[in-house]
Structures are given as structure tokens and as C-alpha cells.
Amino acid sequence: MGLCYKLRFFRVGISENGLIVPKGLFPCKQRRGKGGEEKGMDYKTTLNLPKTDFPMKANLAQREPELLARWDRMDLYGKLRQVSVGRPPFILHDGPPYANGHIHLGTALNKILKDMIVKSRQMSGFDAIYVPGWDCHGLPIEHQVDKELGPRKKAMTQVEIRRYCRAYAEKFIDIQRQEFKRLGVLGEWDNPYLTMSFDYEATIARELGRFFERGSVVRSKKPIYWCCSCRTALAEAEVEYHDHESPSIYVKFPLSDESRRALADFRDIPVHVIIWTTTPWTLPANLAIALHPDFTYAAVRVGDEVWILAEGLVEQCMKTFGIEDYEKIRELSSRELEGLQCRHPFLDRASRLVLGSHVTLDAGTGCVHTAPGHGREDYDTALAYGLDVYSPVDDDGCFTAEVPFFGGQFVFDANAAVNAKLKERGALVLETTVSHSYPHCWRCKKPVIFRATEQWFISMERNDLRKKALQAIDQVQWVPSWGRDRIYQMIENRPDWCISRQRSWGVPITVFTCRQCGEVLATPEVFDKVTALFEKEGADGWFERSVEDLLPDGAVCAGCGGKDFDKEMDILDVWFDSGVSHAAVLERRPYLRSPADLYLEGSDQHRGWFHSSLLASVGTRDRAPYKAVLTHGFVVDGQGYKMSKSLGNVIVPGEIINKFGAEILRLWVSAEDYRDDIRISQDILQRLSETYRRIRNTWRFLLGNLHDFDPARHGVSVTAMQELDRYALHMLQKLVGKVRRAYDRFEFHRVYHAVHNYCTVDLSAFYLDILKDRLYTAPPDSVERRSAQTALYRILTSLLKLMAPILSFTAEEAWAHLPGHHAESVHLEAFPEVEEALVDEALEARWERILRLRADVSRALEAARQAKTIGHSLDARVRLHLPEAWQPDFAQDAELLRTVFIVSEVRLENLDGQVEAMDGQEVSGCKVLVEPASGQKCERCWVLSNTVGTFADHPTICARCHDVLHTPQ
């Protein structure tokens, strides 16, 4: 196919550096045998054979670092900024990865995608600035430091622990910076944004102050996710769901005597409300049982008792219980039951029947155990009925001493003890287990609980934050479009944002509490002083300095006039840290702007960074911080399974780079639609490596045939070009248009497939295949050859620019070998534009017919090969019968068709009656007859010709080649 310099009809040996074509008349060396006798002429040296220093073997693992060093020396990113002065900006704002551990394939995918977007926007005429960032605070880093410090941590102050955390984050920022740069990602690596930098920490405090100023922050006791192992509250985005086996129990709550008497029919019989739960440990905190306001309930006689449960679940529940002998004796409305009281099965406490729309008939009994301190719906129900938010569980997840029977027990361990107590009291109807999706801590991977504690919240209802956020969502472009629905539903249904954490490494909630009355001091003066301090000393100053140093002058409590305060020691949720990056980065750096043009992260960030950034911006600026949000899928193995150490299917980016090169990793990112999950395996990488080799060798072939071409001196005008070359440039314009549109839509897989198809089908299998004869055998400076070279130069220049955002290393390497004067880096160039002057639809229509003819002729040639009528195509004469409508258009094109078919002769004639002729499949009415060509094979061009043997000075070559050898060069 013209790759690797395997010439289709020239048997020549080519060194790594190619062959030199001598100037002047072609000298023909005598070939001699071992004894010195003459063997004829050696015409190899008369051919224009490819020559280039661009190596066939990529050696990417070795060559890529050399290119990275060159980019650093030339300050490529700085030069990009210089050439972009005055251009419209394009800001892709980097979602910060955690400064924790080495990069993995997911982070590599993310950074490469961002790099492709930034580079493609840069080459599309924008000033595409990329400021990378790192998330530096929070549990992931503190957890690792805890493991490193071990028992030593107990003897350390909070400030000392924070310094260890800062050093740990700095270490991995440096590691990840080099790993990201190794991927070929360009950016402001010497000036990234860090959420632990002093100016960023000051901005975090300043943005928190804006929420306080608007009255959006409240302190209250609410049930939130709590990790007993990490001893801290968790945000929605810090919770992962995994399969978990839990106890599944059905429990009888006896109706109180007074409530039983209120139901006239059941005065003299025990009545029980049946509940179902998978968290027996929460029963000591039960204060109510919720019924749905619209459901009908049934009183069911079971033995000597009456059980109350949802009418629609009676049959299912009795089957589950294994009870066949039962009788529905009465229907009850939920309104009729509301306000009645049950007795707790094992505690001296009432449990009130209340109404709640969260009750469903999907499972259980339609009567929902309600512990206000351990569930969101339970909490909301408690507020409606004035119930206590009771949560008798400490920070370690153990029952407090006030809990009878179970005080001091870890809650999950207490499940069995609770069940035993229920059984002892005769309240346990059924005990089984259930496997279900259960929340786990994202860091320690252990199950979490809902626990009501005193926390700081950003209210979703104050200042209409929820309403404004939902409105802002519809002002944003979401790609894929389902991202809009996903985040909309999350915002619509989410609780208040719990922003407090009980840890050390983070930015503190910079407010004070009056010692006398408990009033919170959170005035603008407080935040002004704190942010000024953080700008100089960072957030450590809050923990190092006394309350007196931190308070503004003259601070007094607005509630009681007191002057003694305690500073808050909780830190902020790290999602608040990264969520205010629009303020800390986009608004504070004068060369950036807010809102950003694009946020790009994995689809899990709809509940993570996209989510917190939206609330943080809408809550203070009443608008989203981004114009568009693009999401990518997750990396999975070749079979579609999630990568995990236990499955042994984890692939590390460094391994791929060392074996294949970062370029193959970049090609992998571009090869599939990243909006879905992306598969990777050694087989996939090997196939992509082969694809890369084909593209590289196509570029090498083009460079090899441009070794003596200077576009300024040798370029041929379009009007003087050969028809085939003009067609090739027309097809190039179609490729440029297709690729540019794909880049505009961030559809890199379409770029990859378009360019790969163009290189293998349009170029190697067609245009270059035909072109070799002209490139190699025509006079070096002839219009025919220079026309071909002009087309090749334009094609290669366009391909290198179009693929530079994806194959950044190889495009740069090939660019350095491109003849002519051009920018010192391909990345400083602009994408090619569609040149309307080269677009020729009529020419395309004509060549579409030629290609159809070529397909029919190729089938006939293959049949002739199989029949051993010919050896290869140049042994053939093709007799071609064209449909009558086509004859006027191709009557004078026998020689053109000969070159297109790569045969020695084409005759256009009438083949009616020739039964051995093959009917065309692509062209109706076409007939093809292949027969051996007459004449002898030319030793120089391999075409069979009757003119071979007619020249005394060169008896073994044809007239065409004889003319070339006598053409002055």
C-alpha cells in the first residue's frame, strides 16, 4: 500500500536514509556479475525514490521525552500565549484531582481529553488557556497522613498534623505534575492553582463570608452521613454505594391501651402495627411510625392478635411470614390512625403514628419505622410533628450510656443484640437478611450511618438557592444532554448542604460563638480580618492564633453584648473548596474569565464538582460558573468490567507509556466515544499501536517523496495540476471540513476514524498507490511530478495540523522534517481551513464513476490472477466496455484509466458478444476483459510495452522512460 517503502512494482533496496537521485542526465550504472561480466543497466539510480530522515520505527518511549524537553526549552506554552494576543479567549477550567497518589487511567483519560480540547480550540483561532489545579485538603490526604503517622498522631497538635498534610500534598503535586506532562499535556504547569495556597484559602473564607452575609448558612442538628471510622460527616459526593448484606426484620409495635380503645372494634384484643427495617440498631431511637396519607390500611386477625399493615401488602407479607390462616377484618384510613400511639417493643417509650408521603408499597409493610436522628425522611417527619431529633450515638458509632441494654456497643454489632431483645419480648415477626446497595465511605470503604449531629449547613431554601440553581441548569449546555436531567434531579431532591467536617486538614469555618448566649458572630468584619490573615499566613493562622488575635477590634455579641467568644474548630467540606474555584482562579487571574466556557470531568461529578460549583456560584452570584459541561465515562477492561486489584485487571498509565508510548494512550482516548465507558486492554492497545504504525508510515511516505520539494520554488498552481491531484485536494477539503466539525463538537472519535480512513483508504489504497509511478519515474522537475508533490505537501501539512491535538508528539516530530519555512512547532499553527477554490463537486462526481470502474476492474484482475492469466496487474491489458451514457465522458481517458487501474494498457471498445468478459457490479452496463499485455517489461517502470527493445542505447526500457533519461535535469 505504499507503506514502509514497499514499492508495488519496483524491486529496490532502500537504506534507512533513502537513495540520492543524481542531478543532470541520469547516469545508468552497468550491472556486473561476480566475474565482472556486464549484466545490463542498473536503472534504480534513475528513479526518484523516497528519502527522509523521519524514522520508520517510532521508539516513542525514548523519543517523547526528547520532544518534551524541546517544548520546555522553547517555552512552547509561553509562545502560544504570545501568538494568541488579541484572540477571543477559551477557558476550559480544570477540575482539580486530589494531590494523593499516582495518576491512574481515569485521570490520564481526563487530562488527555482536556489537552485535546485546549489544543484544538487553540488551533481554531482562540486563546485557549489551561491552568491545571489540585485539590489539596480533605480526608483522602489526611487519611494517608494518619496511616504514616500512626500512634505518633495522638501526641501532635492540629497545626503539626496540618503541616504533615501540606508536605504530603506538595509531594504528590510534584509527582502528578510530571506524570501529566509526560502525557504531552500543555498548560501553566509552573503556576497551577492549589486549594491549599494562601490566596486560595483566603478566597474560600471570603466566599463562605458571602454565604453568611446572605443568611444562607445555618447551624442545626440534622441527620447526615457519618463515617464512624473516619469520625466525620460526609457529603453526598463522598459516599459510594456497594452491595452490602443487612439484617431484614419485621417487628410488632403494640398499640397502647388508650389508642386501642380509640378504635372501637379492638378494645379487647391486642393490636400491633407491623414495621420492617434493615437497620435494627436504629430501633432504640424510634419515636414514630409513618403511614402514607393516601394509603388504605387493613386490620388483619392473626391468631389472637390484630396486625395493622397496608392493605395492598397484606397478601405479600403473609406469604413472606409463612402465615396462611389470617383474616382481614377491617379497613382503616391513615387519617383514622394518625395520632394514635404504640408502645416501643422493649423501651418505656411511646411511638406515635404519623403521616409521611415518603412511605411506599415497594417493600415492607407500608408502616415505616421512624427514627428522626437517623434518617432524612424521618427528620422531615419529626419537624412536621414536633418530635425530638434523637440520636443516641457518639462519634465512634457507639450507643451512648443513656441507651438501655446496648450502651457502649458499636451500632452494627448491636444488630444481633437488638434482634435478640425483640425475640425475648415476643416482638420479632420474622428475621432474615437482604443484600442491597448501601452507602460506604469513599475513603475507608466502610459502611456509613445516618446520624444527627450539630452541623453547619447551606440552606437550599433560604434565598431560593434550590430554585435559582434549577433555573441556572437550563442556561447551561450539557453534553451529553442527559447530564442536564441527572443534575436537575439531584438538585431538586437534595437536602441542605452540610459544609462542616470534624477533621484537621482543611479551611476552618471562620466564625465565633458567644460563650454567654451561644450567638454566632459572623460579620463582614470577621471575614475581612480572617481573609487578610489567610492571604499572609494561610489557614494555619486560625489554629495557631488566639481568639483575641483573630477577632476584629471591638467585636461584641449581637445577642447579649458579650465579648468572650470561642472560635469554630470544624473545617469546611472540601467540595466547598473546589466549588469556589471560579472565584479563586477564574475571577482572580486577570487573563481568565468567569463563567468558564467549559467544565469537563467524569459523569460522577454531576454529584461532585459540577454540583458543588453550581451551588457555590449560584449561592453568591445567581448564575452558573460554566457555560457548558462535558462528561466522559469510566475506564473499564476489555470485557467491560470495572478495574480492580482483586480482579487483576488494573493497567497503570506508566506501563503503557513504557511499552507503547504516551502517543498510543492519546490515540486510545481519541479512538472511542468517551461519553460512554471506554474499554482498554493489551489487545486494544496492540491494535491501536498497529493503527498508529500505519498512520506514521503514511506520513513517512509523504515526507520521503517531498525530499527535493520546496513549496515556494516547486509548487504548482491548481490550474496547472494534474486532474488526479486536483481530485485529491478536493477530497482533502472534505476531510478538513469533517474533522473541523468534529473538533468543534469535541467528537474526537470522529476525528480519529476520519483521518484513519483517509490515510488507509483515500491515500494508501488509492491515491498513493496510483501516484507512485509518476513520483518515481517522471523527470524530477517535471510539472507532472511537481504537481503530485504539491498535492502531497498540502495533504501532509493539513494532516499534521489536524492530528496535532491527538498525536501531539508524532505530529511535532514529522513537522520538523517538513520542507519549506514554517513555525517552529506544529502547535503554533492554525488548523487548515476549507479552501473553496479547491472544492470541485463536478470533479468528485467524475471520479466517483472512475472509482466504481476501478472496483469492477480490480475484481476482473483478481479473477485473472486466480486463473493464472496474469501474475500481477502490470502484466495485464484491460479491455473495457463502458455504458453508452459514459462513453463521451471517458473516450479520451484510456491513458488516465491505465494509471488508475495500474495496468500496462487500457483499451476502450465494444465487448458485446465477448462471453468471457466480466459484467460490472458497480457500473451497470460495464464489461471488463483482462488478457496478457503485449510487449516486453520495461526494466525501469515495469510496464509492458511494445517500445521496449527499440532503443539501441537502452534496449530494456520503454519509450516513456527513454524520454525521461534524455530529459535535461
From TrEMBL:
It comes from the Bacteria. Zn(2+) binds at residues 938, 941, 958, 961. GO terms for biological process: isoleucyl-tRNA aminoacylation. A motif ('KMSKS' region) lies at residues 642-646. Belongs to the class-I aminoacyl-tRNA synthetase family. IleS type 1 subfamily. Catalyzes the attachment of isoleucine to tRNA(Ile). As IleRS can inadvertently accommodate and process structurally similar amino acids such as valine, to avoid such errors it has two additional distinct tRNA(Ile)-dependent editing activities. One activity is designated as 'pretransfer' editing and involves the hydrolysis of activated Val-AMP. The other activity is designated 'posttransfer' editing and involves deacylation of mischarged Val-tRNA(Ile). This is Isoleucine--tRNA ligase. The gene is ileS.
